[in-house]
Amino acid sequence: MQSRKQHFISGIKNGIPIGLGYLAVSFSFGILASKSGLSTVQAVLMSALNLTSAGQFASLAVITSAGSYLEMALSQLIINLRYCLMSCSLSQKIDPKAPFIHRFLVAFGNTDEVFGLSSAVEGPLSPYYSYGLIAMAFPGWTIGTLLGAIAGDILPARLLSALGVALYGMFCAIIIPPAKKDSVLRKVILLAMAASLLFSVVPILNEISSGMRVIILTVGIAALAAKLAPIREEEAA
Questions:
Q1: CA-to-CA distance for 130 and 135, rounded, in angstroms?
Q2: Average pLDDT score over residue span 147-166
Q3: Where are the alpha helices (DSSP H) in 65-156?
């Protein structure tokens, strides 16, 4: 049986690619946060306290549009709700005798990638393995944000605009591969793009704040997809 130290070191080794990936993505977030009017300290604090890429990018849209606290809360609840489910799933793999604080700390640092590697562990999950993953993910995300925010303060506007394209490249890299394999997902993505365009150009709809657009589109399109193309239990197994 591996010791706590061995589990932690194993998590660190497996988490190195996560940390490097987060460093690149959060650099783009730091630049965008700086362009949105956040100070370097505010941008880093946001990454350190949230550790959620989609939620943070969405929050910038709410901030720049002067959205309300209610919009911010609802958008974050909807976008990050999956982490609640992921954390509940991981809590079932941790030794029932483990103190509650372990579940709390693992849930705080739980991301899509941390969840993927943690859930793939055979047998009971040692929280120290997850701590090793988080030890790479957390600094990768916060340091990348710091570097991006600093760059946003000192680099020329033209260069920042060019670097900002990396953000859209990241989103394309996320959605294109699975969309090629899944026709339903491909249709959902196209529908989301079309709906977002309508909300941007159609009178009355374009007056809705960015935060409310995220909420309406996320809930509406997800509900429609679940209704028209539900995933059967045998397919999900």
A1: 8
A2: 75
A3: 69-91, 100-108, 112-119, 127-154
Residue in the structure block whose two tokens are 């709906």:
195
The residue whose two tokens read 């990454």 is: 47
CA 116 to CA 86: how far, in whole Å? 9
Written as one letter, the residue type at 38 is L
Residue recorded with tokens 């590697």: 117
Mean local confidence (pLDDT), 218-237? 71
Are the C-beta atoms of 136 and 19 separated by less than 8 Å?
Answer: yes
Residue 153 has pLDDT above 70, yes or no: yes
Q: What is the greatest pairwise CA distance in the chain?
A: 64
Extract long-range pairs of 187-196: CB within 8 Å, 24+ residues apart: 188/221, 188/225, 191/221, 191/224, 192/217, 192/221, 195/220, 195/221
**Confidence band for 173, pLDDT divided at 50, 70 and 90:** low
Query: CA–CA separation, 40 vs 30, rounded Å?
Result: 8
Question: What's the predicted TM-score (pTM) here?
Answer: 0.71
The number of CA neighbours under 13 Å toward the Cβ of 200 is: 7
Chain centroid to CA 185: 19
